[in-house]
Structures are given as C-alpha cells and as structure tokens.
Amino acid sequence: MTKPILEIRGLTRRFPVKPAGHRPWRRAKMSWLHAVDGVEFAIAPGETVGLVGESGCGKSTLVRLVTRLIDPSSGNIAFVGNEIGGIPARRFARTPQRASIQMVFQDAGESLNPRFTAARVIADPLLRLSRLRGSALAARVREAAGLAGLPDELLSRFPHQLSGGQKARVGIARAIAVEPQLMILDEPTAALDVSVQVVILQLLDGLKRRLGMSYLFVSHDLNVVRLLCDRVLVMYLGKIVESGPVGTVFGSPAHPYTKALVAAIPSLDQRGVKRLRLSGEPRSPIDPDPGTCRFFGRCPKGQKNCAAVMPELRPLAGGRSVACHYPEIVAAEATREAPTMNSNLLPFQIPHPAS
Amino acid sequence: MSEAPPLLAVADLSIEFRTRSGSVRALEKVAFDIGRGETVALVGESGSGKSVTAYALLGLLDPAARVTSGRIVFGGLDLLTAGERALEEMRGREVSLISQNPRGALNPIRPVGKQLADVLLRHANVRRAEVPQRAVEMLAKVGIPDPTRRAAAYPFELSGGMCQRVTIALALACSPALLIADEPTTGLDVTTQAVVMDLLAELAAASQMATILITHDLALAGEYADRIVVMHAGHVVESAPADELFARPRHPYTAKLIAATPKSGTQLADLAAIPGNLPDVRRADLPACRYSARCERHSKKCDAPLPLVTIGQSHMVACWQPL
Asked: What is the pLDDT tens value at each position of chain A, 355 positions in all?
C-alpha cells in the first residue's frame, strides 16, 4: 500500500444544542448534536473517494473538518503524514498546507463574489497563498483557466455574465490555481443540466489524471459517484456505515441502508418493480444512545441486538467494510454453508457484552 | 386514445414575455394532450419552458407574459378565455399544483393542519365541524406518522420530506382531476424522493388522477411517466410513450439527452455532452428549428417551418430528419 495522502482516525465533531423544552431563565445541561461521530478513512494519492448519504447525515460537517474550516471535537487528521487536526482553523489558513487542500463548492453561482471578474476570482487564492504578482500572477490565472477549459475572453466577465457551466469552471479553476494535492468537491454538478454535467465530470476526471490530485467527491447522485469514484463511503447519521470499491458497494450493497439508497435511484429498467423503500424518519442526532445502531427503527432487519450493541465498522472480503450486525453478502463472497431460512442473512454472531 | 376527448388538450400555445431587452418567445406552438388517469412528464433542460407551460395551465402567468396564440382546453373549458371566477373555482378543486420548494409553498406562520383546513373550507363540500378531522385524515393518507400531533406543527418543525408530503396532501385535498407536479422532488434525498414519487403514483392510480410531472431528470420521468414530452427552448421536440422514447428516440436532441444521462452500466467516457447552448430566445430571427445550431444532422431542409411528424400511433417528433 502506498502511503495515504489523507488519513482520518476517530474524527468527531459535536455541536452544543439547547435541549427540548429549554427555558432560558434556567441553567440547563447542554445537549450535544453528534454531527460526525468516530469517522475513519484514508485517501490514497490519485484516488477518488465518493461520500454519499442523505442530507443531515454529516457530510458537510465532515467536509468542513477535512478542509479545516472548522475544528474537530476529537480525532486525528493526518495530511501527507502531518497531523493537521490540532491546528486551529484560523491559524490553518496561514499554514503551507492550506494551498494543498482546496475545495470546489456546491453552488458555483453562490460561491463566486458577484463583484469580482472571473480572473479576479481565480487570482484570489493566489494573492493569499502565493507570492505571485503582476504578470506572473496573470499568467498563472490564465493557465488555471485554460486547464479548466475557460477561454481567455471570458476572464474579464462577472459571474452574472457567465452560464452555469462556465461558473462551475471558474470554481474549478480557482481551486486548482494553487496546485492542491487534495481537492474536495461538494456536489459540483448538482445545479447543472445533464448536458453540462457530463462535460464538467469529464473535465474533473481529466484534471485529476493530469495534475495527479486526489478527490473527495461529495454527492447524493449515486450514478455520478459511480462514474467518477474508485471507492465510496456511505454515511448515515454521523457514522460511516459502509465503504469499499464503488462497483462492489453499489453492485451488491452489504448494509441495509446502502441497499435502500441503491434501490432509490430512479432507473428505466425498474419500471413498476416494487423496490425496497425506507419508512420513517432518521433518528435524532442529538445525544444518540451509544448502544443503539443509528439505523435501528428504519432498518428492515433490525433485531433486538441492534438496539443493544452499536455495530462497528469491520472489514469484509473484497476491500470493503460494513457497520452492521447482519450484513448482506453475495454468494461469491459468502461461505457456502449459509443458513437455510434466509440465505441473505449470514450467521454473524457479534459477542454480546450484555449477556 | 383518439375516441374519448382528452382531459386536457393544449394546442398551438405560444407565450411571449415582454422584457426591457425585447420580447422573449418562451413557448412556441406547444401542443400535447393528457388523458384521464395518465401521467405525462415534461422533460427538458432549464430554460426550456417546462414551468411556463405549467403556470399557463393554471392561469398564473406573470403579468409580463402574453399568450399570442393557442388554446388550453380542460374538460370542455377553454382556460385562456375563461374568467377569473371560473379559474378560481377550477384551481385547487379540479387542477392543483405541487411546487418546487415545499417550504416556500407553505405558510410559515400557520400550522399545517390549519392550512389543509383552509383548502377544504374553500373548495370542498365539507361541514365546518368535520374539517379538522378531514385534515388529519389527509395527513394520514400521505403517510405522515402521528398525524394528529403533526397537524398542529408549523412547517419549520417538519423535515423537507414531511413538508413535501403536506403539500401533496394540500394538492390532493379536493381529489383534483389533474395534478401538476413541478419538480416535486428537487431538494429531497434520493431515498425520500423514491418514497414521495411512489406515494404520488399510488394516489394517482387510486383516484384516476392525471398527472403532469415536470422534471429535468430523464430517469425519474422514465420510471414514473406513461408518456414523455421533451421540450427544448420553448418547443415540444418529441412526445412518445416512455418505453418507446428510450428504446427508439427519434429527435436528435432526445437521443443526446439520453446519451448524457448517467446510467448504471455506463462509463464516464461513454457519456456524450450536447454541444452548444440553448439559443437566445430574445432574438427575432430565430431559426425555425431552435435546435438546429446544436444539431449534427442540420441541413438546408431544416430552415422550413417545423413539421410535426407522427410515427406510429402516438409518437410525435418535430424534426425534418428524424433518426
């Protein structure tokens, strides 16, 4: 294994919230919203890792922790071997690693200063993070814009004079201008039409190869993740419930949540087929019971055990991991003597600490 | 299909917007029919005129809009010439709308049960005393758990998926004959999207309600619609039964759109982008076929006024050289 570019261990971020029925004149104990709870993963050089999960599952908090825009409550973030989790976010903006981790924001239109021209937008991180000035700066801006497929004549335009796809390119050019090693893409194509989406995805894939970057690609569009990513992390309420190569995870999901997620993708060949649907709402992320699986209650196979022991992320065959007591394993991976009652259910018996 | 008159017939509909930089020809000769209980999807890129069509059906166009030609006949009533009184009676009772942003569609300072009651009192023949009970029943019907308690909740207390269920309950309160769902699942998670779409399909089937599903997601349209109407820059370019459209698209634009949509088996390199952009619809000298500037098959023939070629029973394509 090559040394990972990013290695995250036990990363946790909690936010204080007022408990329900809080009366402001009484001093009350604060409740804690566990946005990201003990997340571990690594990204190898040149790898694209997808991060999927529904809104409110902690994707954005995780991304903001990794880009060091906010500080973790606990845990480690190692970037090319250097621990950066302990550096306060304000100070991190002045460290050399700031240029190495860059981000492409979700809504290209909203993340561009409306009073800056495209050239000024792209120059902004260079002005802060590099010593380039004058003609050298202008040359670097043109180079970054060229890499992102933005013609020179558009550089003097303001965001409102650009189309959606062009704005997305400006956002990408801004991120690659400072030559990052790790780029975080937060739904870069969510606001684009399919015809433009294809172009941007192909551009991102080409840039990764040319510039040797690694990507952390956040998206709720599983079809897009499948196209661009090598590995995928599935997140549910602050925890990673499944991770592994994209083909295996989406092809034969082991965690019931991943299964529901895959079943929810609209697809043409599934017309009229009754598919797995999740009922109910996610559990509250505020002061969650540490002994209950976060998916319990919505899970189609929840058992007594799931409310007593939190399943840990453990490795399965084929380079993937799953956090479930009763993962579903396809025949190729499973042992032959699967139980007769339900061939989908493997006899995984987790040692029960309570009994 | 040709025997019984359709529930809704849109014919030759052209709409212009007057703006400071000239008039925008947002729709040109749009035509489609919807039968009772049928689900029709309007598909196209942003700016193709999907939402303008929906608002025209409801008579809710912007004051700057002007209908330059066409007819919209709904159950024998021409909506474009009908008076405001008749339209008010029709909206909500016969035709209702689910809008893009559920939270924006709800009144933020009124409990959702009260909002449902308002609709029932205005449009349905329900005794005043029974209204709160009916509102709770409606919430239960759209699958909201604990509806009695949720009826007293304000929109901010509900999740996005819950709010969307409430707007569905509002739209279906009077069992309309036609439902217009304008991007009903944007901003919802895939899991919630699937549940909401299943619910809509189920309710539509149960009450023989026709649905116009407006979406930019071709896969979603393919999964839930009986027929798909593809729009491009204010023109209907193709209209066909869903299976047929995907199996054999005839308009070059439809084919490109299908090729650009990521599917389970495809690789990134397989996907092909659609060259060019939507044409500037403010121009007075727009070509007859608004796709011609982006089209590979473009030739001299295409400068003639746009034809409507009918292939087979119900497959229509507006192209001189269909695939």
From this structure: 578 999 999 999 999 887 767 777 777 778 899 999 999 999 999 999 999 988 778 888 999 999 999 999 999 999 998 999 999 999 998 888 899 999 998 888 888 999 999 999 999 999 999 899 999 999 999 999 999 999 999 999 999 999 888 999 999 999 999 999 999 999 888 878 888 888 899 999 999 999 999 999 998 888 889 989 999 999 999 999 999 999 999 988 999 999 999 888 887 666 666 777 887 777 888 888 888 898 988 888 888 888 888 998 989 888 899 999 988 765 444 433 333 333 333 334 344 444 3
CA distances from A311 to A57, A242, A293 (A): 17, 11, 6
CA distances from B180 to B92, B141, B171 (A): 11, 19, 9
CB–CB contact A55 B189 (8 Å) = yes
Other C-beta atoms lying within 10 Å of the C-beta of residue A87? 18
| C-beta atoms of A271 and B242 within 8 A | yes
- Beta-carbon separation of A277 and B256 below 8 A: no
B262 → closest Cβ in A163, A205, A224: A224
Chain B residue numbers with beta carbons less than 8 Å from the beta carbon of A222 are 190
ipTM of the complex: 0.81
Nearest chain A residue to B267 by CA: give it: A227
Chain B positions touching A280 (Cβ under 8 A) are 145
Nearest to A148 by CA among A90, A210, A102, A99: A210
- What is the arrangement of strands in the sheet containing B39-43, beginning at the earlier edge strand? B95-98, B178-182, B210-215, B39-43, B227-232, B235-241, B315-317, B309-311
Collapse the DSSP code of B79 into the 3-class scheme (helix H, G, I; strand E, B; otherwise coil) and give the result.
coil
Using the CB atoms, write b or e for A323-342: b if 16+ within 10 Å: bbbbbbbeeebbeeeeeeee
Q: Report how far Cα B48 is from the mean position of its chain's Cα atoms.
A: 12
Residue contact A195–B45, C-beta within 8 A: yes
B37 to chain A, any CB pair closer than 8 A? The answer is no
Of A163, A198, A265, the CB nearest to B277: A163
Beta bridge partners of B77: B74
| Segment (H or E) for B254 | helix B252-260
Give the integer Cα–Cα distance in Å for A201 and A216: 14
Q: Calculate the CA A16 to chain-centre distance.
A: 23
- Interchain contact, B190 vs A220, CB within 8 Å: yes
Q: What is the pLDDT of residues B226-245, one digit of tens each?
A: 999 999 999 999 999 998 99
Instruction: Tell me the C-alpha distance between B124 and B114, whole Å.
Output: 15
Cβ contact A182:A5 at 8 Å: yes
Distance of alpha carbon A86 from alpha carbon A79, whole angstroms: 12
**What's the residue count for chain A?**
355
In angstroms, the CA B208 to CA B202 distance is 10
